[in-house]
Amino acid sequence: MKKKILISALVLAIVGFIYALSMYYKPHEDLNKSKPDYTLTYAELISQYDKNEDRADSLYLGKTVEISGKVNNIEKSESDATIAMNQEGTMTGILFEFEDEGQLDNIQEGQEVIIRGKCSGKLIDIVINRSILIQ
Amino acid sequence: MKNSLIIFYILAISSTAFSQKYFTKSAQVDFYSETPIEKIEALNKKGTCVLDCNSGAVEFAVLIKAFQFEKALMQEHFNENYMESNTYPKAVFKGKLKDFDYSKNLNGETQTFDVVGEITIHGVTQPLTTKVNMTFSENTINCTSSFEIEVADFDIKIPSVVKDNIAKVVEVTLNAPLEPLQ
Hints:
The complex is a heterodimer of chains A (135) and B (182).
Chain A: H1 2-24, E1 38-41, H2 42-51, H3 53-60, E2 64-70, E3 73-76, E4 81-86, E5 93-98, E6 112-122, E7 126-133
Parallel strand pairs in A: 1-2, 5-7
Antiparallel strand pairs in A: 2-6, 3-4, 4-5, 6-7
Chain B: H1 5-14, E1 21-34, E2 39-52, E3 57-63, E4 68-69, H2 72-82, E5 90-97, E6 110-121, E7 124-136, E8 141-150, E9 169-180
Antiparallel strand pairs in B: 1-2, 1-9, 2-3, 2-4, 3-5, 5-6, 6-7, 7-8, 8-9
């Protein structure tokens, strides 16, 4: 009886350990697989943040958003890969930061795109991190 | 923080006749914590910085959720437990460069200036004085600075289970390539 308890305890400990390790090393969310929490146009997102930043944060901060719009500007440097979308009549734009700069290879300014990423909030622009190109 | 402090700040200082403002939306902020148990590092590439060359006033802001960590779990803990970034989405520094004389032609030079101000993290404001290295070229002022942040000063609570994983003092490094604000 004692042996059985010992073995069960050991198995439990190993399972616990493997679980802890898998959590510690768990990968970042694959946005290709997750459904967006919100789908909207770039104009809609900008307008909501301009109207009421706190309210927009309560909806979008930390959430997965899927934004459609026109590429205004592409920035590719050795450390950064960003697409910007801007709207006339407001200083507020959207900056999409990409982890994989290869995604920007075939994108041109003026192109209509759909980008999915995590909303980090707004400083001057609304910043979307871990962006991936959907279309 | 309700509206973008920076937009307000830019508008406020735009009223001065000949003021030259420099600005970036892609300042890099790196923070590093090392303990015998763990090394933690995160990078934010979307910091904003505005410098008023006439007054020497400088303002810097970062979105907490824009800090990227290698380990997803660490990023989660950082945002949800330590920084509570849903409640405090930004960290802001407002200060002034000492003895900054923009009328002197500094093209091609690198100079170090003291900067004195206040930093607000996790809703707590503390005084911060540090040095910034500025390299002046034709159309850019490249600024770099390093300073230390004592985690406890900002009411950031680290659970006792992981208190040896996170350093009490974190090193912050920033790099801001400023360009003239059109």
